[in-house]
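Thread: Carbohydrate kinase, structure

OP (GT): Posting the sequence first so everyone is looking at the same thing. Length is 486 residues per the record. Can we get the structure tokens written out before standup tomorrow? I want them in the notebook alongside the other entries.
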Amino acid sequence: MFVGIDVGTSLVKAAAFDRSGRVLAVEARPVGLDLCGGAVEQDAGEVYAAVTAVLEALTARVPEPVELAGLTGQGDGVWLVDAAGLPVRPAISWMDGRAHGLVDRWLADGTVEAVFRRTGGALFPGSPGPLLAWLDRHEPACLDRAAAAVCCKDMVFQRLTGAGRAVTDVSDASMPFLDPRTRSYDDGVLELLGLARRRRLLPAIGDPAATGEAGGEGLPAGTPLANGPYDLAACALGAGVTAPGDGLLIVGTCLASLVVTTGLDLGGEPAGLYISTDRPGHRLRAMPAMVGTAALDWVLATTGARHQELDALLAGAPPGSSGVRVLPYFAPSGERAPFVEPGLRADLLGVSLETRPADLVRATCEGIGYAARHCLAAAGLTGTLAVCGGGTRSAAWTRLLADVLGRPLRVVEGEVGARGAVLAAAGRYGVELDAGAWTRPTRLVDPDPDRAAYYARGYAEHLELLAGARERARPGTGPVTGVTGC
């Protein structure tokens, strides 16, 4: 069998596949997030324990030899580890907002733009550059003790294989220090961010992805394991999105819009990033928005509704949600795509005593759809569009997304990230798998022409409301502020 490991933000999963791509079994374990005044941290030890637990449970359920395994996981944030891959402090999540004030200053003084013009990646509070700069100011001793500042999957790979040094891959390295032309670190970016003296913390880049043998924890000793790509790029591979112009929308905690490109445009508004892939010259123009299912989770919890009721709630309100509008920017670190606005917060408009829970829920789903349309346009979508993620489990929301986006959707269900991790590992080890069979869509969803026309007008109104909200969110220049962590 082939095993894909997907270390998500709130859920760790391992999936077993046969050679045709059929799922044999899936094991999952939740992991916690610690939120405190805008800081969002994770216990790296808990995350690693969840990885080994799902792997042990999976291999016990499917007692077949493991031919190879691929690893993917959440990106960004900072996972400080020692030489053995053990945590030096709690991991800081990509959702963290403590560097908000620092990014505000860099937006004002041109640093964000200067970095984007070099790398194609726009800084946001939860990306490694601002977080390392914040730690350098507030917790320098942690950086002094650390051997490397890695991403989540890199910590897991080092510990599963017992590798003597930290290593990442070009996809995780893409933000924010990688020059996408040379596929190596740009020391000029480190200078711009005041991190030149911390250069030693950047892990080696495996290009192609690093490989190693499992040491016996979770996977049988000797199992070939490949590190990467990280979850956005793995999902694109697992959804069969590999042709220039084609796109993928991941409806998850992060609402990620990805478009395959062979170009590199470092102009325009600094936003999103270019994710380098294992094919030199091919990149993903990524707009990973902070809005996503987390916004819907909050609205459902606030209204007392359950996830199982989502389809019924969407059916219980008309298009336009009885006049209710939701700008779904609920993240404590603001928004990062298709623009960077750390101070942006959600708006609920048109709410009255007559507003029903169904109106709020549908307006939130519509608002997330408008945000996705904005991101896909900015990413340059010209071809087909695949969609995956937890949000696609709702047939009603998937139909709504097709209407809001005004285009057909290729729905790819199941463990898409884990599939991509296996396909990447197979490529790295020279194992031939039928990628077409592995990535065949589950169903196709076409938009309704009348509703699509209605939502095209609604999208224009969304952009007008968003412009006003962004203007209100912008601070004046001043001293660097932000949360101090937990």
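GT: Both are above now. Quick notes for whoever picks this up: Residues 449-473 form the longest helix (25 residues). The mean pLDDT is 95.
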